[in-house]
Specification:
alpha/beta; 291 residues; LipA_acyltrans; two-stranded antiparallel sheet; 11 helices
Length: 291
């Protein structure tokens, strides 16, 4: 009860801030960038270590340029997440342009569910709103609950404003099975860092051995639902595109960890093309292969 009361109070203040126009929020973002990059140095050691390991072929100057662009984008991501609390459906549709919508529609017309995969790239959070408005079919967002219950409740309430259903990882299979008789899409943010107990599969990713989740692959094989990548890209400040690409039509036919390899390679290619929009402050490589 105390958590619910606290989340309601905080959510109200987030709502008040979200009513500010974008130009005011971006003015605040400009100040926040200076604080994060030049004053606080938010996770700079993590960001630069990640960039050095991911791009050893680049010069220090090139990596610093990527880092500055990332830090310039991060405050925008924060204020845009706040704006999600009150943004209108019309504004969401204006700010994320959809490409290759037919990749979803043809699977839905065939009566299939879709295993959607995406990454912590560009504004994946706003992408939840856009996907919810794109289809009348159920949209399931598979997420890893935060340790802070208050923040978790606030985030999930915001994410579900336009009808998305938030599904904790441990309930994924049960929820997808409950929807198996109707077209729907389940979205997995596939570049999170699993615990050792949740996965033992390492892949080469951005020049490093990387522990990855295999849950999307397991469920895709079990259901034989097609695997579709949702690539959200930044076009300009506050504006994005979302492109749907079917990576695997018949998952049951793909041997081993082929599906996990495919969607992670797709993610890596996106990051290498425009690295500044990925979440470099995330401690992605804190898990190491056991000897």
């Amino acid at each position: 009860m105390a958590v619910m009361r606290k989340s309601s109070i905080v959510s109200f203040f987030v709502y008040l801030i979200s009513l500010l126009p974008f130009w005011v929020l971006y003015a605040f973002s400009n100040v926040l960038y200076l604080l994060l990059y030049y004053v606080i140095g938010y996770r700079k050691a993590v960001v630069y270590e990640n960039l050095r390991n991911a791009f050893p072929e680049k010069t220090d100057s090139e990596r610093r340029q990527i880092a500055r662009k990332f830090y310039r984008f991060l405050p925008d991501l924060i204020v845009e997440a706040v704006k999600m609390r009150s943004i209108s459906a019309e504004a969401v549709e204006k700010r994320i342009v959809i490409h290759q919508k037919e990749e979803l529609e043809r699977h839905f017309r065939a009566g299939k569910g879709v295993i959607g995969v995406t990454a912590h790239y560009a504004n994946w959070e706003l992408g939840i709103h856009r996907l919810s408005l794109l289809t009348e079919n159920p949209v399931l967002i598979i997420y890893k609950p935060l340790h802070n219950q208050t923040v978790d409740l606030i985030y999930n309430a915001i994410r579900g404003r336009f009808g998305a259903t938030m599904v904790p990882m441990k309930q994924t299979l049960r929820k997808i099975i409950a929807h198996r008789q109707q077209p729907h899409i389940s979205i997995f943010v596939a570049d999170q860092t699993p615990m050792y107990k949740d996965s033992n599969y390492f892949i080469p990713f951005l020049n490093q051995d990387t522990l990855v989740y295999t849950g999307a692959e397991k469920i895709a094989k079990m259901t034989n639902f097609p695997v579709v990548f949702c690539h959200i890209d930044r076009v300009r400040r506050g504006h994005y595109s979302c492109t749907f690409t079917t990576l695997v039509e018949n998952p049951a036919e793909v041997p081993g960890h082929g599906i996990t390899d495919i969607h992670n390679k797709f993610t890596e290619d996106i990051i290498r093309r425009k690295p500044e929009w990925w979440l470099w402050s995330h401690r992605r490589w804190k898990r190491k292969p056991k000897p």
